[in-house]
Amino acid sequence: MPKPFTPKVVTANALIEGDVIYLTNSGEWSRRHEDARLFTEEAPAEAALSAAALQASEIVGAYLADAEATPKGPKPTHFREAFRATGPSNYAHGKQVDL
Amino acid sequence: MYSYTDFDEAFVRNRVSQFRAQVERRIDGSLTEDEFKPLRLMNGLYLQLHAYMLRVAIPYGTISARQMRQLAFIADKWDKGYGHFTTRQNIQYNWPALKDVPDMLEALADVQMHAIQTSGNCIRNVTSDHFAGAAGDEVADPRPYAELLRQWSTDHPEFQFLPRKFKIAVTGAEADRAVIRAHDIGLQLVEQNGEIGFKVIIGGGLGRTPMIGKVVREFLPEADLLPYCEAIVHVYNTLGRRDNKYKARIKITVHENGIDTMRELIEARFAEIRPEFTGVDQEMLAAIKAQFATPALREGDVAAYEAAREMDPVFRAWADTNLTAHRDADHAIVTISIKAHGKTPGDATSDQMRLMADLAEEYAHGELRISHEQNVILPHVHKGDLPAIHAALKAAGLGTANIGLASDIIACPGMDYCALATARSIPIAQEIATRVDELKIEHEVGELKIKISGCINACGHHHVGHIGILGLDRAGVENYQVTLGGDGTQDAAIGTRMGPGFSAEEIVPAIERLMLAYLELRDAPEETFLATFRRLGDAPFKAALYPESEARNAA
Ligand code: HEM
Ligand code: SF4
Q1: Whose CA is closest to atom 42 on ligand 1?
Q2: Cβ distance B342 to B430 under 8 Å?
Q3: What is chain A's Cα-based Rg?
Q4: Which residues of A touch B80 (CB under 8 A)?
Q5: Count: domains in chain B
Q6: pLDDT in tens, B228-245
Q7: Residue B368 sits in which domain range?
Q8: How far, in Å, from the CA of B422 to the mean position of ligand 2?
């Protein structure tokens, strides 16, 4: 039996800076996880991923990552994605201070 | 120290300008990521979790004061003011922007450094004993051979697309400080009937199937080094599996074909190609050797050292742990700990790099080393200068007296930086070191090597840690598995897995229980953790790790 689809965001790294970005409702890329568009169905998620993969001169390595809805916007469900959304734990570097 | 020839210089500069053009074409969209990725990896540029990462080779761990200053300059100008020294004698920058990388490589080339062959399925940065050329116990300095191998392997046409990455380590002493038995080829300089040669070991490796290397040749004459290594890599290139990346390393080739078959094939190929090596390599070697001559060591009395030992217990503790015997009795090898309790193992700020460069220039013939244990070494220091060096280090947060002790932990970048990680390793290292410092027990515990990897790739050498910790993802939660009894020296051994893993909260107390149990179990203070484990086996240590199940069994 195929696994039921869990909600996802499209994420990648920015080509020049290399930092983590998320696809938003308007089809732009945001540095903030909570701005991401949350896909609750598989087909549109896959379609958005394929479209994103074509933006080769802006982004690198797009993929779908699990997330859940909260009143403040989507939030990561796995700790790896939580680190990507905040930054490393040994220094106050990355998104936790840049945003 | 080795200085680039015109050929080296032109080669490195040429690579930088090639890469500059490739980056431009990537940014303007003419190269796709699929096209660009192999090109950037060839130049040491990875994409990690939060940013790009540039991995710079420090061949055989030797670096000049001038180069160290340049690393500091690069850290300030294009990164966040620090660098991470790794177990592979590299330095990694965690935050470069793609557009700046060609400038960083140019700045490296200005001091004869580069990031070539720090990635990809080629022969990687050749590593060596960080005490090479200074240690009292070596047959000869291994670095000229490492440099010869580096020149031979750089851009070698036959070996740019091996089945998998290929790592060579060379040591000059029986006491193995370069973990040669966990490398694809491990070379140990030995002397036989007054002649210098190599013991050749192949098929070691860590990763998901750890293996201790096997001796393929007990004695290889010095002059046969390149043809023999070429024969090994050739046999591997032909036989190594390309169908499955997890079975592609030479350790699996040796395991599947057996060391005897490998030996036959290697010797046959060696006999075939040996005549092609007409001695040019030996002329090169002679020229290289001249560049590794020991600096003129100064004379002078060591009274200041003796006095500081008497007067200053902090200095004495540091001298007891951080100094190693130099082959000249009035000199010492200084290991600078970049493992202050609670700090990230292997990280040095640009200020610290500059200070170490200054000290090297003032007191240590302008030379530094990077160890696979992620520390920095001043290889030739007159003992009379030690008090001044210690005072300067202490003031810069570099005076920690913990070399070889519980807080001198190897940790890979783990989930804080690495895209392949399954769990974090740095915070676990920070917490263990902080705890050990609170308990003030590490000097009593004595020699203890704790090594942490953030996934099965084992970049943190956990398999060969006396205590190895492997971070895994168990159903979306970080989980840490403990192995005991590993050893990366001449008595190399892969650690044994103890049992179920621990959560991020449980792992530090579990390590603490192990240390306390050891103090109870040892015969005498001289019996190390590893020796005690070897004498007693798993049982008492398992009992310390899992007291609940122990209690249940007793009930
Ligand atoms: C972006 C970061 C890194 C990536 C993607 C990476 C990738 C890998 C992979 C895939 C392996 C397994 C190779 C195999 O079993 O065939 C490996 C092994 C290893 N890496 Fe890394 N690594 C990274 C960082 C590091 C760092 C920071 C160090 C040094 C501290 C390091 C040192 C090693 C060592 C010593 C091994 C095991 C020895 C062996 O090759 O068998 N790596 N790495
Ligand atoms: S062991 Fe795993 S987590 Fe650690 S650096 Fe290597 S690949 Fe990354």
Answers
A1: B459
A2: yes
A3: 13
A4: 91, 93
A5: 4
A6: 999 999 999 999 888 898
A7: 303-395
A8: 8
Burial of residue B534 (number of CB atoms within 10 Å: 0-12, 13-18, 19+): middle
User: How many Cβ atoms from other residues are within 10 Å of residue B404's Cβ?
Assistant: 17
A43-97 pLDDT per residue, tens: 999 999 999 988 878 899 999 999 999 999 999 999 999 999 999 999 999 999 9
Q: Is B457 in the pocket of ligand 2 (CB under 6 A)?
A: yes
pLDDT of B226 above 80: yes
Asked if ipTM goes beyond 0.85, one says yes
Residue B69 makes CB contacts below 8 A (sequence gap 6+) with B353, B354, B357
In order, the DSSP letters of B460-513 are T-GGGSSEEEEEEEETTEEEEEEEE--B-STT-BPPEE-SS-EETTTHHHHHHH
Q: Tell me how far apart the alpha carbons of residues B473 and B463 are, in angstroms, rounded to a whole number.
A: 18
Domain endpoint, select from B350, B367, B395: B395
Question: Is B123 part of a structural domain of the chain?
Answer: no
Could you tell me whether strands B347-349 and B214-221 are parallel, antiparallel, or unpaired per DSSP bridges? unpaired
- At B347, is the secondary structure helix, strand, or coil? strand
Whether residue A93 and residue B50 make contact (CB cut-off 8 A), yes or no, is yes
Strand, helix or coil for residue B320: helix
Q: B433: number of CA atoms within 13 Å, CB side?
A: 30
Amino acid at the residue B19:
F
pTM reported for the whole predicted model: 0.93
Cα B504 from Cα B513, distance rounded (Å): 15
Contact (CB, 8 A) for B107 and B72: no
Q: Are B139 and B191 in contact (CB under 8 A)?
A: yes
Helix B225-239 vs helix B259-273: crossing angle, to nearest 10: 120
Residue B298: which of B393, B378, B387, B383 has the closest Cα? B383
**Whether B317 and B420 share a structural domain:** no
In ligand 2, which atom is closest to the CA atom of B471? 3
